Amino acid sequence: MNETDYYQIIKENYPEEGTDYIKLFEVVKSVSDKIGMDKTLELLGKRDEERRIIWANKNLTKFRRSENILDDVLKIFYKECVGVEI
What is the pTM assigned to this prediction? Predict the structure, then answer.
């Protein structure tokens, strides 16, 4: 297997929504046994970045509700991804 194959495994277990984090941890451990933890975390970081971009693109119309876009983004993120209103 090559890096692309391992990335695909991580991606399949770290979807845009509804992640089973216990299963993801098991996948990270399994992949890291094969390619090392540093490389595995690099692939996981790449997927996390991809997920954030997808999320931001889906929520662009919700930004700029106030003068502070950072506050707006954090409020939206916590409400939709964590389930907590701040």
Answer: 0.72
